[in-house]
Amino acid sequence: MISFTLNGALTSLDLPDDVPLLAALRGAAGLSGPRLGCAAEGCGACMVLLDGKPVMSCTLALGAAVGREVTSVEGLGDFEAPHPLQIAFLKEQAGQCGYCLSGILVSAAALLAADPDPDDAAIRRALDPHLCRCGSHNRILRAVRRAAAVMRSDVVEAA
Amino acid sequence: MSDVVETPKLPNSLRDNPRLSRWLGFGEGGQVIISPGKVELGQGILTALSQIAADELDVALPRILVRTVATPNSPDEGVTSGSLSVQNSGAALRHVCAEARMIFLQVASQASGVAIEALRVEDGIFHGPNGPVGSYWTLAERGLLECDATPGRRAKPPAARRLVSISTARTDLPDKVFGRPRFVHDMRPDGLLHARVVRPPSRGAQLLELPEGELPGGARILRDGDFLAVLAEVEHDAQLAAEWLAMRTTWAERDTLPDENALAEWLRAAPHQETAVVERGDPGEALSVRCLRASFFRPPVAHASIGTSCALARWDGGVVEVWSHTQGPYNLRKDMALTLGIPEEAVVIRHVEGAGCYGHNGADDVALDAALAARAAPGRPVRMLWGRADELGWSPFSSAMLVDVQAGLDEAGCLASFRLDVTSNGHSSRPGRGKLPTLLAASHLAEPFAVPPAINLPAERGGGAQRNAVPGYRVPALRVGMRTVTEMPLRVSAMRGLGAPVNVWAIESVMDELAVMAGADPLDFRLRHLEDQRAAAVLRKAAEMAGWARRQRRDGFGLGMGVARYKNLGGWCAVFAEIEAEEVVRARRLWVAADLGEVVNPDGAANQLEGGAIHAASQALKEAVRFDRRRVTSDSWENYPILRFSEVPEVEVQFINRPEEPPLGAGEPSFGPTVAAIANAIHDALGIRPRTMPFTPENLAAAMETA
User: Which residues on chain B are in Cβ contact (under 8 Å) with A96?
Assistant: First the structure.
């Protein structure tokens, strides 16, 4: 039994510890947010946070999560209580097909947690592991800047 | 002309599917249900169609529910492609909703005794002078939509529209930012089994021997000729089993592919059919005092979707139900039936979203793979998921292309002659259009189907390789020819723009060179030869956005332009590109001006144009399908790199909005002009004319040597 905290809740999965974390999250844990893109750390679609740090869950063994905190896009917020980044992505219409967004959102959340006022180069660097084929990059960059500004102020944007 | 009375016609999609109830219904909970025949590919089409329907019916936008396409009840609108969805489906829905509104108001008028002119519709409720007299929903049971659409213009005049030409938030995006199940990959019906396909190690390989021994996780092997797949209860076991099997299966391999380093020569020598696209005057005879010849080559390129292709299938008796991110549910149904040897009625295709496809990727192929796998487990839903190597190695590509141009100026420095010859495979292997199925596994079965070579649609339907091969400039002597290569060593099909990106790049590069020969500014030179005022208008606008007139030379930077009317039938788009040439060329800024007629959802259309421009920059600077004599070797992101966040240019988009003109699609018009603008900017910075895509240091160095 592998036990860890998933999106704030203690979770135990009856799986071998060498199963990729992504397979466990999409399989036994029933999540949809972390996505399979390449299974080779090449695109970032599977990105989740492990103790707050972005990791590619496609190659990481489930065993590496034991006793630690895993956060996926579902853990950032939901429709009722969205994360400022999720609001900003909707405000900026930052996406087309949306397949890459789950991973990008968690990387952006980690960035803003570490650096509340990142410059353009820092945002691009943080998102560089992520591929977006639809070409929504500029909207995504704007959305991250928007969320950063909101999080630095006391203003709360309505979804 | 004015004395000819035009017979009003139904929009094409409606002519093919005239029954109103096929498009529109009213739900018990106060919803308006629309059923377009076009599908969501991440382009936001369902939002734009909802705006059009809500506007014509006078209901609030949130009332609109879109029923996604499913055979056999949805309208058959063919394939969602070619930047035609707003144009075709939008026109049909606008007509249906306007006619439905009229029918309902007539009935409400008769029942209430209030004259129809005195009725107004507010959020679906019919108000007379003394209050409400009914609504769409009070009359929903009457079967009023069980009739065929009739020709005639009833839709609101542009000035009366309230919900279109307004930027509207995409209805599909919230699910995507909250990670909710939305894609076919996320479906988890009860009893789900998981499948993986094990493709041959190379093109044309034949399966000799399967390994002995137990598969991991008790997975089962399915084999039909050279089609090999595994089926397991747990997804990860299916993955392990596929890897286990791929390592231990014996295949006979052989060389089937041309030399990738001599692909242009291969294209010239390959068997082909010749078609004259346009002949006007004689470019050979025309008096050109100064002439130039140039050849442009692009290797095959991949769709490279971020999500891998996926489908679910379930057999129940003789019927197979398939959940697919296909662009053409009815087309897929036809080829599935052909391949499986069952009637079309025994195949049900339900559209579910996938990752963006940008054309004919593996979406249809994986649906057949799923159906073949599911046949071994009757009654149980099976999810087939491709891996990255399947996606980049086996999806159809966009064909390699070669464009030869010969053009000349007269004594006054005006374009006198233009000859363009495009050599390419066809640009469509879409299913459902021929006697043979075009689905990948159909040629791998024990009783295989031959692989038909890709085709080019005729120019009036937008063409394929010849798309945008006819320059939009005034020229007395013009000849455009197409050589459709009939041998297809790499399976190719439709991708964003089809032949347009390479043709526009070739034409716009030559225009820049001719301007230099004429001693003219490239902007002025183009404007002097543009008779199409809408093309001239977008070019002027983009020039203004980019500050062309007051540009200043900066070392290592270049500015270039490209303009085209997409397909010579669709939207007008001009792009200016600023590049920086260091060790590699980077696109830094793109300015895009477009005229798409009526723009239904301006922010949605801008998003599409931006996306097309960035996709084009990625293709122009980085992309090439690589292969040896047997296999595609660019089957990972490492070997098929695309533009990353650190490399993407800033993009500014502006429209020339023409609400009185028909709406035109936004997904493709910026592609060709962006490639051209980047190429011309490279010349501006480095003095090199790029002749081979992608514009990598190696290809630019080669261009410098041959210059």
Answer: 42-44, 356, 607-608, 611
Q: CB under 8 Å to B53, separation ≥6 — which residues?
A: B24, B32, B34, B64, B93, B94, B97
| Residues B357, B271 within the same domain | no
Name the residue with tokens 């036994």: A28
CB atoms within 10 A of CB B354: 30
| H-helix segments, B196-328 | 235-248, 263-269
pLDDT tens digits for B524-569?
999 999 999 999 999 999 999 999 999 999 999 999 999 999 999 9
**Which residues in chain A are closer than 8 Å to B307, comparing Cβ atoms?**
35-37, 45, 97, 99
Alpha-carbon distance B174 to nearest alpha carbon in chain A (angstroms): 7
In a domain, B438, yes or no: no
**CA B167: distance to chain centroid?**
22
Instruction: Give me the domains of chain A, ranges plus CATH numbers.
Output: 2-76 (3.10.20.30), 84-152 (1.10.150.120)
CATH number for the domain spanning B67: value is 3.30.365.10
CB contact under 8 A, A135 and B614: yes
Query: pLDDT tens digit string along A23-59?
Result: 999 999 999 999 999 999 999 999 999 999 999 999 9
- Is residue B3 scored above 60 in pLDDT? no
How many CB pairs below 8 Å do chains A and B form together?
169
Asked whether the beta carbons of B380 and B309 are under 8 A apart, the reply is no
Q: Which two tokens stand for residue B649?
A: 């240019």
How far is A108 from A92, CA to CA, in rounded Å?
15
φ and ψ at residue B311, rounded to 5 degrees:
-155, 155
Q: Which domain holds residue B140?
A: 12-169
Question: What is the spatial distance between Cα B61 and Cα B53, in angstroms, rounded to a whole number?
Answer: 8
Separation CA B425–CA B456 (nearest Å)? 8
Residues of A in contact with B41 (CB under 8 A): 97
Interface mutation target, options B45, B167, B176, chain A, most CBs of A under 10 Å: B176
pLDDT digits 0-9 by tens, B323-374: 999 999 999 999 999 999 999 999 999 999 999 999 999 999 999 999 999 9
> What confidence score (pLDDT) does residue B8 get?
78
Distance CA B672, CA B651 (A): 15
CB contact under 8 A, A23 and B239: yes
Radius of gyration of the CA atoms of chain A, in A: 15
pLDDT above 80 for A13? yes
What gap in Å lies between CA B371 and CA B342, rounded to an integer? 12
Does position A134 have pLDDT exceeding 50, yes or no?
yes
Residues in A closer than 8 angstroms to B608, CB to CB, are 96
* Helix B500-518 × helix B671-686 angle, to 10°: 40
- For residues B320 and B333, membership in a common domain is answered with yes
Q: Which of A49, A133, A142 has the most B C-beta neighbours within 10 Å, making it the best mutation to test the interface with B? A: A133
Tell me which residue of B614, B632, B631, B630 sits closest to B622, measured CA to CA: B614
In this predicted structure, the answer to whether residue B1 has a pLDDT above a threshold of 50 is no
The answer for residues whose C-beta is within 8 angstroms of residue B322's C-beta and 6 or more apart is: B311, B312, B313, B332, B336, B347, B348, B349, B350, B367, B370, B371
Torsion sign (Cα): B577, B583, B584, B586: negative
Alpha carbon distance B266, B550 (integer Å): 45
Residues B208 and B91 reside in one and the same domain = no
Contacts of B130 (CB under 8 A, 6+ apart): none
Q: Name the 3-class secondary structure at B514.
A: helix
B163 and B203 co-located in one domain: no
Q: Which residues of B touch A99 (CB under 8 A)?
A: 42, 176, 183, 305-307, 354-356
CB–CB of A135 and B179 under 8 A? no
What is the gyration radius of the CA atoms in chain B, in angstroms? 27
* Spatial distance between the Cα atoms of B249 and B466, rounded to a whole number of angstroms: 43
